[in-house]
Amino acid sequence: MKFSELFHTIQGEGQLIGVPSVFFRTSYCNLRCVWCDTPYTSWEPEDRDITVAESVAAITRYGCKHVVITGGEPFIQPEPLTELCHELDKRGHHITIETNATLFAEVAAHLISMSPKLRNSNPPEDNHFFKRHERERICPEVIRKFLDAYPCQVKFVVDTPEDLTEIQTLQTEIGIPAETSC
Description:
By secondary structure, the protein is α/β, with parallel strands linked by helices. It has helices at 52-60, 78-90, 130-136, 140-149, 161-175, and strands spanning 2-10, 20-26, 48-49, 66-70, 94-99, 111-114, 152-154. It holds the Pfam family Radical_SAM.
């Protein structure tokens, strides 16, 4: 599995804010958000190889039951992600997966934290990633699959008041329950 970093911290957002957590950050992302705060996982991926067994050992060393698998985009590596979640679940870990909700795989997870990307995430139009990013940033069918299969929270990055209109439109068109948004 390609990963970027592993660290222990306090969950700083969403339903589990304040919960001690181990963050396992995967490498690679299929989107190129202009304001990405982890460009070392997307724009210029820095990655290391780690086996699932090594990942589980490193995570369990912290003695913390809540694990957040983030990225990059974790679902870009579906096979090792599925195996990692299975192994962590067997050991009694609570697993949250943070995703841009453009890719889907069935995994052992207790919370899916979706962050569909609004127009404010688009790279500049003259950037070679623009067209792909704009085309792939919202996948209604994937969002619906997650909502149907898992407990979910939905987080949007809001930059301007116009973003709120886009969020309301997405909630209505896709069927995102307002109570899942944070």
